[in-house]
Structure formats: C-alpha cells, structure tokens
Amino acid sequence: MSWSRGSAVVAFGGGHGLHTSLTALRRITDRLTAVVTVADDGGSSGRLRREFGCLPPGDLRMALAALCGDDQVGRRWASVLQSRFSGAGPLSGHAIGNLLIAGLWQQLEDPVAGLDMVGELLRTRGRVLPMSSVPLQIEADVLGLDPLAPDELCTLAGQATVAKTRATVQSVRLVPEDPPAHPEAIAAVRQADAIVLGPGSWFTSVIPHLLVPELREAILSTPARRILVMNIAAADETDGFTASRHIELLAEHAPTLRLDFVLADVGFVGSDRHLTQFAASLGAELAVADIRCHDGSLRHDPKRLADAYQELLVS
C-alpha cells in the first residue's frame, strides 16, 4: 500500500478513545475525518440534548479539539472549547464548546455546517462528522444487575448508565433501531484509504458504529485498510473480559465484519493464547506493540500509537 500524508483516514469512536486516536493519526496524515457516536446522554451533552432535542455535542467537541491547528490560535481555541463553567448556576458543568456548538445548530439547518464552522475557528486538520443524523439511545442486556437474581437478564437504557454499570453487559442495541447514517460519513468511508475503529468504551463508543446499517455496510464494502485498535486493558463496562472476548463481542454484533489488522498493546495480550485465532476469524492479522503510556495509566501513548499506525499502513 502506498502511503503519504495525503492519504485519507476515517477514525470511528467517541470520547477520550477517539481523541487519543486522532492525536496519533494527525502525526501521519493531513486528511483525517472523525465519525463520532451520538448516543451520549450524560453530563453537559445530556442536558443540552434533553433541552433542545439536538445531537449530543460533547464527543464531537472533543474530536474537534483533537484536530485543532498546531498554531497558537488553534490551540487557544481548543483550550477554550474544552473548558467548563464552574459555580452553582445553571451553566455549571457545561463545556463552553458544547454551548457554542448547540448555539450554532440552532442557527443552521445542518449540524455538520455548525461543526465545520467550529473547525474553522480551531483551524482543524480534518473534519468531524456525526455517525447518524439523529440522536440515539443505547440499550443493553445485562446479567447480575440484581444480586438476588444474578442469572436474570435485565435491560439498561442510556449511554451514561450502561457505561457505568457493574453488571455484565451481554449485548447492546440502538434506539431507534436501524437509524440513518449521516450521508457525509458514508461518503468519507467510501473515499478513505484506511479506517480505524477504536479504541474506546467497547459497548458505547466502538460497537455502536456497527449497529447503523448504512455505516456497517460502508465499513464492510470499503477497499480501505481496516484497523481495529484494542483498549489498553479491560475496564468499566468490559471489566474482567479478556482481549479475545472483546473480539468475540464485535463478531456477535456484526457477524459479517472483516478487518485487516487488530492492534493490541503487549500488556493486554498477556497470556491470551486465543487472540490470534479470534482476530483471524475476522480476517485480520494480530499486531502487538508497546503502545501504552508509561506513567501507570490505562491510556495509549499518542507517539507510540502513531508509530504503530504508520507501520501497519505502509506494510
């Protein structure tokens, strides 16, 4: 594969995982598109979503901040967008960027036009698009919610609730079912040289992209190189799951999914002797690298992650 800074990459995800992936990818390409989940219903995003019926802006804001220009103006605007109101008033907890984006959406008919305007302020290197044209809700089937009935299957609703549950998530779905993908997200996938899925919260930031039929079909049919990035470790909604179980969950939610590479940190692979086989079941080669921050946190190091991306994309 011929690779250059002009090659196009589409990165899927949400929240901190997507922010990290974009921070790494911008080191190796100037043509980046972030396709972001729109099911967040907690915090500032949830409040704006409930009040105005808009897409939740928080994950979109974080992706824009990750793509900010390298100059002083771009970095300053990114810092402003990420900052939050303090105090006890009605604006307390709101990110300034969330309010700006929601305000622009009230003035413009197309949410993407508002995101592009914010991108101009930040002098972003790339674009940010919502994965769907409508705000979505996540529902999950879980075990162990009731300690008196640990084998009873229960339903949880809402991204914020699912992300924080201590019960064992079995599967997730989107409401409404089979939502429309945003047309520009589909177009970006079809024009991509590579697509990257993950890292991020498995049930609420990674799998949801595969539950939007048009988006799933575009991912399946694209000739682009397809890379799945595993998390540094199992945490929160997948606490206790092996790396292999993460792959199995993707296959259960999107049985026809095919990938080229599964990228995992050496520490997460550990003694999981089945991971190579599970990756191969999706048509993928397992790539193991040291991509974790060495400060003890469960975060990817953007520089190491960029090096790993570069190696996979030029091979």
Could you characterize what this model shows?
Keywords: Cytoplasm. It is found in: Cytoplasm. Belongs to the gluconeogenesis factor family. Required for morphogenesis under gluconeogenic growth conditions. With 315 residues, this protein is α/β, with parallel strands linked by helices. Helices cover 41% and strands 17% of the residues. Helix 1 (15-25) packs across helix 14. The protein is globular. The termini are close together. The relative contact order is 0.14. The mean pLDDT is 94.
Overall structural class, as computed from helix and strand content, comes to alpha/beta
Helicity, in percent?
40-55%
Low-confidence stretches: none
| Overall strand count | 10
Strand order of the largest sheet: 3-2-1-7-8-9-10
Radius of gyration from the CA trace?
19 Å
Mean pLDDT: 94
Order of helices and strands: EHEHHHHHEEEHEHEHHEHEHHEH
**Mass-distribution shape:** globular
Termini separation:
7 Å
Beta-strand fraction estimate: 15-25%
Q: Main sheet, how many strands, which sense, barrel?
A: 7 strands, parallel
Q: Please report the number of helical segments.
A: 14
Pfam families: CofD
Subcellular location: Cytoplasm
InterPro entries: CofD (IPR002882), CofD-like_dom_sf (IPR038136), Gluconeogen_factor (IPR010119)
Family: Belongs to the gluconeogenesis factor family.
